[in-house]
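Quick check before the chapter quiz. The format below is the same one you will see on the exam, so make sure you can read both the input and the output lines.
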Amino acid sequence: MGNALLFFPALANGSPDDRTLHKGELSQSQKVIAQCWLHESDYTPAVPSGNNHADSRESIKTTEIKLGLRDI
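Here is the expected output.
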């Protein structure tokens, strides 16, 4: 609590900035992440076919139960 990271993942021309590649470390306690994406122009996400929120709900629920974050 009280820590934040702000970064801009692209250069001014819109091309990806490799310096912003990152990965989170394993947490020994609860870890909370919030994301807010702001786009300067129209944006079309490049999501692989079949990869959407609705399809992942059951997997998320199973993982939450396994981690003790949700009752059956």
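If your answer matched, good. The longest helix spans residues 53-66.
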